[in-house]
Amino acid sequence: ETGVTQSPTHLIKTRGQQVTLRCSSQSGHNTVSWYQQALGQGPQFIFQYYREEENGRGNFPPRFSGLQFPNYSSELNVNALELDDSALYLCASSLDGKNIQYFGAGTRLSVL
Amino acid sequence: DAKTTQPTSMDCAEGRAANLPCNHSTISGNEYVYWYRQIHSQGPQYIIHGLKNNETNEMASLIITEDRKSSTLILPHATLRDTAVYYCIVRVGEGGSEKLVFGKGTKLTVNP
To answer: Residue B53, CB half-sphere, CA atoms under 13 Å: how many?
Structure first.
């Protein structure tokens, strides 16, 4: 157990819809990173939030956006869903973004 | 792109040591080597990390060559529960944002 929780566990959406995924970080951690993992691939970095500000972004379009709240929990929002957005979405929390990242179990998103 | 190269798959007998190699020939002097593993349908689990000295914890040992161009993760007594995809990662820091760049990892199968 890492103390990082994600919700929901599974989600099914249709193309064009919007989705919000949630992450509760480990107690005391102020940084959350989001990753996308397509089937058979390693996780790919989407972006990181540190103290409520975006602190780095991977090669993902603007329709992928996020928020971090004062309690350091976080949301990942994806607009205009595409079929290729079907993946496991992982969040990881860490202290100050420079130390060990602890991952949640992920949210499995299926876009039909 | 990932900065590491790992074999696609490996097998190991239960109770024997599993030695997982990783090449990271372009590693910079201040970059750490991290190892994570991902058991099917779960989030990645942190195992160990190091800079240039060998490291050991309750899960594994990490041996880094003197030139730091390669490393080996050692699971001293592999069990069936160690069957997973193992990722060797060079932590990349850009502008204060620390992200993990995953490759495809090594699929380790521990056989009874």
So the answer is: 2
Of B43, B44, B94, the CB nearest to A56: B94
Q: DSSP labels for B37-90? A: EE-TTS--EEEEEESSS-EE-SS-EEEE-TTSSEEEEEETT--GGG-EEEEEEE
Phi and psi (nearest 5°) for A73?
-70, 165
- What are the two backbone dihedrals, phi and then psi, of residue A85, each rounded to the nearest 5 degrees? -80, -5
Q: How far is CA B42 from the centre of its chain?
A: 17
CB pairs under 8 A between A and B: 64
Query: What ranges make up the beta strands (E) of chain A?
Result: 5-7, 10-13, 19-24, 31-37, 44-50, 53-57, 64-68, 74-78, 87-94, 102-103, 107-111
Tell me the pLDDT tens digit for each residue of B48-106.
999 888 999 999 999 999 999 999 999 999 999 999 999 999 886 554 567 888 888 99
CA distance A47 to chain B (A): 8
The C-alpha atoms of residue B19 and residue B72 are separated, in whole angstroms, by 6
Question: Can you tell me the distance from the alpha carbon of A29 to that of A102, in angstroms, rounded to the nearest whole number?
Answer: 10
